[in-house]
Amino acid sequence: xxxxxxxxxxxxxxxxxxxxxxxxxxxxxxxxxxxxxxxxxxxxxxxxxxxxxxxxxxxxxxxxxxxxxxxxxxxxxxxxxxxxxxxxxxxxxxxxxxxxxxxxxxxxxxxxxxxxxxxxxxxxxxxxxxxxxxxxxxxxxxxxxxxxxxxxxxxxxxxxxxxxxxxxxxxxxxxxxxxxxxxxxxxxxxxxxxxxxxxxxxxxxxxxxxxxxxxxx
Length: 217
Description:
It is a single chain. By secondary structure, the protein is an alpha/beta fold. It has two domains: 1-30; 33-216, 3-Layer(aba) Sandwich (Rossmann fold). Helices cover 49% and strands 12% of the residues. It contains seven helices and five strands, in the order H-E-H-E-H-E-H-H-E-H-E-H. It has helices spanning 2-29, 56-66, 83-97, 108-112, 117-133, 151-168, 202-213, and strands at 35-41, 71-75, 101-105, 137-141, 171-173. It has a five-stranded parallel β-sheet, sandwiched between helices. The longest helix is centred in the N-terminal third of the chain and has 28 residues, at 2-29.
């Protein structure tokens, strides 16, 4: 009788341990919330001059799938977009898509139009704040302007992005075209306008974004 009681006790302990292990293992294996990435960009993100599906944003969705990361990428980029236009469109997009992450790739067109940097910075700051208040993590993508804009303007423009990232604790890509625009044969990597990379440059752009985005996922 004692032996039966002992066996039952052991069996109960084993069942309890097995159940505890299964519960823990299930918790570790349970998939996290699917990511929803809202990209607010300009022509560099809107596949300007490219075959559909070859831009870095489309490649990001493909990389999600390749890495087994659950999630969707919403490309709300528009060619010619400024920080002012992005700010105007952002709130409705946040409400519609409720993204977990917002990628902001804007500012280059502000510089091309000679808009005041203070306005650009204020618009980007407002976009970051709106996104964070909506519960999204933010990735800010920086750009550079050619030296013919003047050294002071070029320096101030380039430093605007890391300054905002530090102030608002966002992830940062310092320069989206790193590895393309700074190549010795850079001209062979751009379309005829000398501004927009060819399809072969977009995997490099994606790598720049992925390094900063992956830790947030």
